Amino acid sequence: MNIVNPATEEVIASVKEDDSKSLAHKRNLLKVGQKNWAARSLAERLRIITQFYNLLDAEKERLAALLTSEVGKPLQQSRNEINGAGTRIKWMLDHGAKYLSDELVTDTPELKEYISYNPLGIVCNISAWNYPYLVGVNVFIPALMAGNAVLYKPSEYATLTGLEIEKLLKQAGVPDDVFKVAIGAKETGEHLLDMNFDGYFFTGSYRTGKHIYERVAPKMVPCQLELGGKDPLYVAGDVKDVAAVAVSTADGAFYNNGQSCCSVERIYVHEKVYDDYLAAFVKEVESWKTGLPDEEGVYIGALTRKEQLKVLELQVKDALQYGAVLLSGGKRKGEKGNYFEPTVLTNVTNQMKVMQEESFGPIIGIMKVNDDAEALYLMQDTAYGLTASVYSDSWERAENILSQIDSGTGYWNCCDRVSAALPWSGRRHSGIGATLSHQGIRAFTRPRAWHLKR
Fold first, then answer.
1. Within 13 Å of residue 299, how many CA atoms lie on the same side as its CB?
2. Secondary structure of the chain in the HEC alphabet?
3. Strand partners, 125
4. What span, in angstroms and rounded, lies between the C-alpha atoms of 398 and 413?
5. In tens digits, what is the pLDDT along the chain, a chain of 454 residues?
6. Pick from 284, 300, 280: which is nearest to 292 by CA?
7. Least crowded by CB within 10 Å, which of 48, 117, 277, 404?
8. Is the separation of the CB atoms in 349 and 341 below 8 Å?
């Protein structure tokens, strides 16, 4: 399998794909290794994960350069991702002992009741390419902390990063038979679904997630899915610093080329501030530098997947056909590499593809609304339910709107943000289950009840 730099279209490496036989061998090794790993003390496992945390920081520059060459994101954004992964790991390390240790419920002279948190066993982690470190540590770090073994399948677009993660985990002290990488694309994923694991954890599209869920259901094991979004954002009419909000929300829509499940994908703006907001938004977008992702100051790099260029072209074509106005961008850029201009569309409606189908690219539709009620109605008009954002000078106003939206996360005066302390979860087509927070740690355990009568 060739690894191609999306910015230059050059082959940067070739790797050998796994087949059903090599995957079965890796799973058999994990079956033995998991029992020994779980038998180690929690303190010992946390110590080893701390070593991985330190190595990730020490190797950051090398890892960021490799990530950029593989997925096309600007070098500084690759550094930011690794720093963010470190922040999440640190939170898990600081709180792991609390949420994985036995939990005393009742303690009287006659009765003691407590809960122990036992590992699931062998976890299959099918991961994503857009944030391989951030998405990855959400799963394999708490899984390893809890005493599980992990078969980790990086996306075929982030294979080299997956292999580096494996290398650093082993260097930190994770045994060779506790963490294994599965190399390949769709066929490799299908082999994993044919096998028996004690839990499946996937990040990716709704379509693939639905397929995985249907395949895993008969196994009667946990299946956590973090899927896509069509995340709406509303700028209320009481916002005073409109320019600052425009800058912030433009970043929320276009950071990492819009290749994030929680990127802002639809913007609704109150008519009172619409004109000022739109002018500031377009000014910000047109100030960004597009170029090779390893060049200084580049904000828009190459899209990771070449196929997405066609998706974006179709969304622009559909929008213009039904009356949208193109204010900026709208087409591919350059003759080489997966580049698409940052695209701003106005005069959009919720019937257009750009306002209904996940874009996963540098494109945004901005729509004027008359009041909060209209904004709320339009924000809810989606099959997804990942995040929703409201910018307003009034928390009460924002809370009233957000409390009526069926999403896993609500943002007030912020967007495109994830915290290790809070659960990351989607509703409806955006997924099932949660990572991060104490819920995301315990997701890799099976609770056991203990009744002790004296």
1. 16
2. CEEECCCCCCEEEECCCCCHHHHHHHHHHHHHHHHHHHHCCHHHHHHHHHHHHHHHHHCHHHHHHHHHHHHCCCHHHHHHHHHHHHHHHHHHHHHHHHHHCCEEEEECCCEEEEEEEEECCEEEEECCCCCHHHHHHHHHHHHHHCCCEEEEECCCCCHHHHHHHHHHHHHHCCCCCCEEECCCCHHHHHHHHHCCCCEEEEECCHHHHHHHHHHHHHHCCCEEEECCCCCEEEECCCCCCHHHHHHHHHHHHHHHHHCCCCCCCEEEEECCCHHHHHHHHHHHHHCCEECCCCCCCEEECCCCCCHHHHHHHHHHHHHHHCCCEEEECCCECCCCCCCECCEEEECCCCCCHHHHCCCCCCEEEEEEECCHHHHHHHHCCCCCCCEEEEECCCHHHHHHHHCCCCCCEEEECCCCCCCCCCCEECCHHHEECEECHHHHHHCCEEEEEEEEEC
3. 152, 201
4. 9
5. 999 999 999 999 999 999 999 999 999 999 999 999 999 999 999 999 999 999 999 999 999 999 999 999 999 999 999 999 999 999 999 999 999 999 999 999 999 999 999 999 999 999 999 999 999 999 999 999 999 999 999 999 999 999 999 999 999 999 999 999 999 999 999 999 999 999 999 999 999 999 999 999 999 999 999 999 999 999 999 999 999 999 999 999 999 999 999 999 999 999 999 999 999 999 999 999 999 999 999 999 999 999 999 999 999 999 999 999 999 999 999 889 999 999 999 999 999 999 999 999 999 999 999 999 999 999 999 999 999 999 999 999 999 999 999 999 999 999 999 999 999 999 999 999 999 999 999 999 999 999 999 8
6. 300
7. 404
8. no
**Structure token pair of residue 364:** 């945004």
Tokens representing 392 are 């307003």
Structure tokens at 307: 């196929």
- What the block records as the tokens of 415 is 């967007």
